[in-house]
């Protein structure tokens, strides 16, 4: 009986192992036979992976910009900066009246055909007529202002012919624009006297030109040689 029981038990064990093996084989087969349309539907609802081509391009651009920035920083740091040179404002030279004196002296005899061959006499006359109109009672007239440049003073009878003297000195004025006409005319008279062998005439600069004819003195202030010494 015991042997019969052992054979029955062994037979059941064999059947159990056979059933387990059959189940193990059947599961892969069942999985292999999943309908294709079910798999397709599952993929349709899944999230597709993001394409990385655009991200890669942006990444390379970023790397390139960083490299360029680093190169510029290295170049600018290693290259010594050029010193900034401050432009110096050119200082204006003061007027040298000795140079003006020489320039006037050089033109005194430049026209041998004029009068007696010298501008000396007419320059002395110009300086005298520009100065002789001064009136000490009201401080008008005189050399300070050079108002003979304007009418009516320039056309006064006593000043006839002096336009030529003023024109001769105009070239000196252009060469030395900082000198006033008032200083130029009086200095020309000094040059004419001294270069002709006359005495040393004290002179100083600082006269200021007037700007219009409203400062012209009235006619008649200059002595009239035709009236004799009593005038």
Automatic annotation (TrEMBL):
Q: What residue ranges carry the coiled-coil annotation? A: none
Q: What InterPro entries does the record tag this protein with?
A: Ccp1-like, Haem_peroxidase, Haem_peroxidase_sf, Peroxidase_I, Peroxidases_AS
| Superkingdom in the source lineage | Eukaryota
Location in or out of the cell: Mitochondrion intermembrane space; Mitochondrion matrix
Recite the UniProt keywords alphabetically.
Heme, Iron, Metal-binding, Mitochondrion, Oxidoreductase, Peroxidase, Transit peptide
Q: Which family does it belong to?
A: Belongs to the peroxidase family. Cytochrome c peroxidase subfamily.
User: Mind telling me what this protein is named?
Assistant: Peroxidase
User: Which species expresses this protein natively?
Assistant: Jimgerdemannia flammicorona
